[in-house]
Fold these 2 entries.
Entry 1:
Amino acid sequence: MKSIGTLYQSGDWKGEKHVPVIHAPETVKSGEPIEVKVIIGEEIPHPNTLEHYIGWVKVYFFAEDAKFPVEIGNYDFSAHGENGLFTEPNITTRFTTEKSGTIFATSYCNIHGLWENSVELKVE
Amino acid sequence: MKSIGTLYQSGDWKGEKHVPVIHAPETVKSGEPIEVKVIIGEEIPHPNTLEHYIGWVKVYFFAEDAKFPVEIGNYDFSAHGENGLFTEPNITTRFTTEKSGTIFATSYCNIHGLWENSVELKVE
Amino acid sequence: MKSIGTLYQSGDWKGEKHVPVIHAPETVKSGEPIEVKVIIGEEIPHPNTLEHYIGWVKVYFFAEDAKFPVEIGNYDFSAHGENGLFTEPNITTRFTTEKSGTIFATSYCNIHGLWENSVELKVE
Amino acid sequence: MKSIGTLYQSGDWKGEKHVPVIHAPETVKSGEPIEVKVIIGEEIPHPNTLEHYIGWVKVYFFAEDAKFPVEIGNYDFSAHGENGLFTEPNITTRFTTEKSGTIFATSYCNIHGLWENSVELKVE
Ligand SMILES: [Fe+3]
Ligand SMILES: [Fe+3]
Ligand SMILES: [Fe+3]
Ligand SMILES: [Fe+3]
């Protein structure tokens, strides 16, 4: 069977405009709100037109003692020129966790497919 | 015919925990990125459990010369206790517009239904 | 305050291509799976291009003894010409209920805004 | 870097209740509407409670000459007991393609993470 998992792309976000850039603290206290900013195209802007755009970002957390990742949120970027309106692929979300683990951000370009990135989070 | 439109609830967010609080600039320059923060329960926290939670926020912009609103984005809050993880109903999104108009935020509580709020945005 | 609720449009789906057409049984047994088909443009097709498309449908159920509607599902139509692919605004969903009430379908056109329709469901 | 792609699980849907079952024609004519049904738990039902449920399904198409997959649709299952309402993880979607390729269905359980399946589609 083919696997969608093999179709996720990544790379250095300083050179590859599709890679989600994740801004998050490295260390937090248990239960303290964690603000995570995800930006696509922070260094090199990605096109934002009706024909070519970033459709969404999903953020997951994979605790170090867990077997499965948990979805934190899904963020759809809806406007790409309608009546002069453009949604930027740039969101901030907030969550709490009692455990250390990995924050994953995945994103979708309607022309260039699925992308991902991750950072580690330490809970003290 | 019945209308879903009549089922949107609102109120003063200082007393009603479901009303989305919208933080946005009052005035921006044309094409300048506008950061909009939407929080549910900023003054009085809303429950965040597997049984009772805020499911999503949608943000629309209705330009003053427009006939129809345009969706800026949709934001799903996915974790409500899974493995000790809680997504907070608190997001920041970014968009650009060349026209003045109204920013609407709508939200959904799985127990208490649909809510809304709006603020005016002036483009100079 | 302005209300997004006033911006939902409706009409006769035989003449207005944006109105969601809801196919559902009129009567079901309690707990029996209910199949609901929602189609936009069943009689008069709606455009489906990168510039103009139906973005999503949401389905709600408002039980006759309830104070608030409950969301059954959200359905995003994502492809509008990418690599020759077109998602049609046409879905079937399934749910169960023990109570009679109203099924609402709402939809969003990126150019023509928010639309709605409803049908009654009797549980015996 | 860790990869979310490695976290997609699969298996035989006759024995593993999380695997999305895809019902689609094997062969279609170019541009002819293709109806795809995706069911989670067709053989062995998956739990559907506020604590444990299937959150969503995403469907992609990867044309045989393409470099990237294109998202056909996203389907959120929203009700898990609210006021006696249960959305079943069972949808039908429709799309058209001029090219042969692979239909992927991915799904998310709030407790058991990400799952996937795929079938081949031949366009004559
Ligand atoms: Fe791209
Ligand atoms: Fe509530
Ligand atoms: Fe339209
Ligand atoms: Fe499960």
Note: The first strand of chain D starts at residue 20 and ends at 23.
Entry 2:
Amino acid sequence: MMHALRGSAGARSSIWTSSYSDGYSARLGLPSTHFYQTVKSSTEQRRFPYKRTTVAVAQRGGPVRALSPAMVELETASLQISQTPEWKALEDHVTEIEKTHLRDLLRDGHRSDTLFHEFNKIIADFSRQRVTSRTLELLTNLAERAKLREKIDAMFAGEHINTTEDRAVLHVALRAPRTKKIVADGTDVVPDVWQVLDKIKDFSDKVRSGEWLGATGKPLTDVVAIGIGGSFLGPLFVHTALRTDQTASEQARGRNLRFLANVDPVDVARALNGLKQETTLVVVVSKTFTTAETMLNARTVRTWLTTELGPKAVAKHMVAVSTNLKLVKEFGIDPNNAFAFWDWVGGRYSVCSAVGMLPLSLQYGFDITEKFLEGAHDVDEHFRTAPFEDNIPVLLGMMGVWNTTFLGYSSLAILPYTQALSKLAPHIQQVSMESNGKGVALDGSKLSFEAGEIDFGEPGTNGQHSFYQLIHQGRVVPCEFIGIVKSQQSVYLKGEVVSNHDELMCNFFAQADALATGKTPIELRAQNVPDSLIPHKTFTGNRPSISILLPELNAFTVGQILALYENRIAVQGFIWGINSFDQWGVELGKVLASKVRAEMHTCRTKDRNVSPTDGFNHSTTKLLNRYLEGKARLLYPEPEDVFPCDLIESDTCRPPSSYV
Amino acid sequence: MMHALRGSAGARSSIWTSSYSDGYSARLGLPSTHFYQTVKSSTEQRRFPYKRTTVAVAQRGGPVRALSPAMVELETASLQISQTPEWKALEDHVTEIEKTHLRDLLRDGHRSDTLFHEFNKIIADFSRQRVTSRTLELLTNLAERAKLREKIDAMFAGEHINTTEDRAVLHVALRAPRTKKIVADGTDVVPDVWQVLDKIKDFSDKVRSGEWLGATGKPLTDVVAIGIGGSFLGPLFVHTALRTDQTASEQARGRNLRFLANVDPVDVARALNGLKQETTLVVVVSKTFTTAETMLNARTVRTWLTTELGPKAVAKHMVAVSTNLKLVKEFGIDPNNAFAFWDWVGGRYSVCSAVGMLPLSLQYGFDITEKFLEGAHDVDEHFRTAPFEDNIPVLLGMMGVWNTTFLGYSSLAILPYTQALSKLAPHIQQVSMESNGKGVALDGSKLSFEAGEIDFGEPGTNGQHSFYQLIHQGRVVPCEFIGIVKSQQSVYLKGEVVSNHDELMCNFFAQADALATGKTPIELRAQNVPDSLIPHKTFTGNRPSISILLPELNAFTVGQILALYENRIAVQGFIWGINSFDQWGVELGKVLASKVRAEMHTCRTKDRNVSPTDGFNHSTTKLLNRYLEGKARLLYPEPEDVFPCDLIESDTCRPPSSYV
């Protein structure tokens, strides 16, 4: 059997000739599920063992990777998407769209109907996007050219679509039901997922019921979850959404959940304020158990615990979400109290793993959080199976590409009309900007267009009294309005025109139309607005938005929202031809921080301040010196064995006279 | 005396011929401080009384306004700033700058020194901006052409620089010391300011000391401040910054301060959760006492209070920050317990008025909040008096114009390296985007360039694990790093390499250099990174940032930060030639919301749902129907006289079967 591949001419990636070597495999006794593959360039020939479903691919100078033949095709499809006729057709189409105004487009009821989509009680109305049926057709063509369907399938099939890290991307498996089979690297991962979920249920039941007690025999009613990035924003988003849900809040009665993310000691003080050690359980979330911020915070909180309760309390008061059992044990946590996840779960996609499920189950009970998984799975199945024209995450993603890349809007405002979703925008900001904030295509070639957008947002109506001025009359910012039919907490006061929730929702409906239709000088003149004010009171309109309406906000629909956004972000990356699942851009800052840390340590441990001279530029040296001088009398002492209970220590020394 | 003015040809505003009429003034007995002015167009002649320092100006079709001769000149200077040679020189200069890279610019120590600025312990390092000495020279030329100095002077002099609302802009007077004199409309406003401040001190002292008691004789330890937009984000920013400050938190011991902004009943539930009526004081903040969200929330919380304590409790448990004493009284609040502010204080600039000072003084004591005012005044004086080349708010503003308009960066990331400033970015997002998110110049002509930027941000290091990926490798986002020398809460653990705060600050230093210098393929190759990964691990660098270092974070420096940003935002607007002090863009949404509200009321009060048919487009009708149907059985009942204590009412009716 022979299978040869060659990279497309001119592309940066050069896929070498490769061939299966069944004879060689047999000779060396490789099992029949595997084979050796020979990879050959003009100067080199090497053999690698792989599973039968994969094929080895090498890039010039790079490691050989194991990919399915389908994946090889997908990578090739992503090359230079901006050079394809489908891309150029959309670029040309922009001129057509620029002749339209949403005020006119919205007069076409048929168009509105075709842009109104529903899935399982979720409504997504795209009628206020600057699109026509032709736009959708062209976007679909582009998606097909980018092999969107195949890429979605490859993701669900556990292919290593995170090519630069050679990993599968299977956060969808985290919410698959027990009956499902999802294979990664030859193994069905669903049983592993459920083994951990069962362990979470068991542990959270024990803590909640009071079977698991703290060192002094008291129930652990307060949980501090230490983690940063994906180990923080996702769980915080879900927690904020559920805390005012009536069912969930009932189950959380008497319990507290707090998060500690920032390495700033101010955040430590905030997170621990008012808590008692003897009723506090600490969950340390770090896959590798080496994340700098998380581990320093974990050691700080461990000191807070042990100062009060003694070193043995760690076993009862601290648990871990991690895969590094060795470091978990060295830290003092019983490895039996470590909850695993897997390398096919990216941090920003990890809220459905133990990262989110453990703290949320401790707070709300496993049955509530299980509904959250069900909601996410519900949308995953829709995403995996629905044809593109009815597929809400796909449509969201296509609109995102259209707005960002073709219409040139750099940002996206996420505007949920409920305070319970106040942490949605910060979470999606992370998922989207870390996933799609990339400058190169899968093959490493520089993008000839801007990919990822800047995501931000606040809940309505708060945002209306803040940045909406710009959105209405300044630069164009595509908006996503999210409304809820039934409020978690409703009030209707005697004598009011509408209920409080109806009042809120009036704004949800009004804002989308205000953006789309605007207000013309003619309308203003008809209202006798003075000429001099007309330009200031004119609204250009023609500003795109999407309206999403959910029946209510509960664990299930919060899961749906999460999966809508996660999958839409993947769609955008798939079309742009980038790797949405790596994050090399965070590395350089870490390296440079280590350098500064070493310098600070040197300066702080000498009798006098040492000027950092080597390896920093003039500006950094100058500012760093000013920083160090500002706490001139801070020389790290050998601290006392006993940690001061109020957490306040050497840093509070008086500043030098120049700062008094 | 004769004084004639005519608008520049071709501009939209036509300044009519005007003449002083001293004889007419004398004849009608106008005092010598005033005079009548005759304003004449080709078809019309009218006389208006004005103060001697003003001149009447009319725009075609618009009202006659009272401006000083200087203001007339300033408005004229703002016309078509983008048509001036100074603007064109900067446009041309972009080509020069595009040939540079920050990696190289940072090698020039002399350049770095000239871009390092200090004022009263604040350090601002501009060396990582994409500027040379030539850029600064050209920006200064532009600022002069835009009459920046004159505009700053006009603001401090109480001129009506908010031209579309014909108002002075004097939030700087809110923090002026008693000894200062600031005149608006012929009156020194400083005594008025201090009268209210003294009243705040008196009232907050009484509440804090327990002299002022609730209806059942208990001290009021908990404050709920109801307000939205500027009446919320500014006070929240300051409160968040102070709550971990050791001095401030000591004075807040045993007290709580919460904010209620969103009209969402979920936010009501969150804000009141766990509070007791008998110990709660409610501050209602609305200048006109008509803000829809604030007043509905005020009525809701009033019901919560009176249900428990009876109607008479309002007098003891509710106070107002408002100027509408009639509505305050009608609401049931004693007008003696209303704290005023003035029409020369814009909502987003109101945190130094009673809007912020009352709740903050109740929480922290007046002496702490007074220091906040002193800090803001400190920077105001620097802003008012320092030459541009040493003026930090002016330099910040000039860089903002350079980045946004000339280099074309649409956004700004505000990245404080302390959790205590976690609400700085949301507040500045409001101040900046509402002020400068405009599409027309002062004279109403359409801007030929993009003005206001999109502001967003999260505290470091949290943001590093979120959106920094995009900032490093995706589209360029100018960044502002804010660091603190002495932490509010410091920890140093035995055996650690650095203290927790030093660890945090390592990142502050590292990120700015990572953005500026990047990492080249050559450096990566030297570290044996495989060729295939090199494009993914390359950092282009050349991404601009500003580093601001403050000696510590306390009430005084929080005031400094506020004034830095407020004044920098004014500088940008002054140079762009827009009105940064109106907000017409928020009006249309309010009008449309009223229309939806009326429709909802009709539908909810009939026996059956009525389809909204008139006046809405097809999309809105469809979605609105789906919303109304979703709560089909919600027909507003006549509520019981007694408000249910748990706030939960009619909206929680079971959904129709289609939603079960």
Note: Confidence is low (pLDDT under 50) at residues 1-17, 637-660 of chain A.
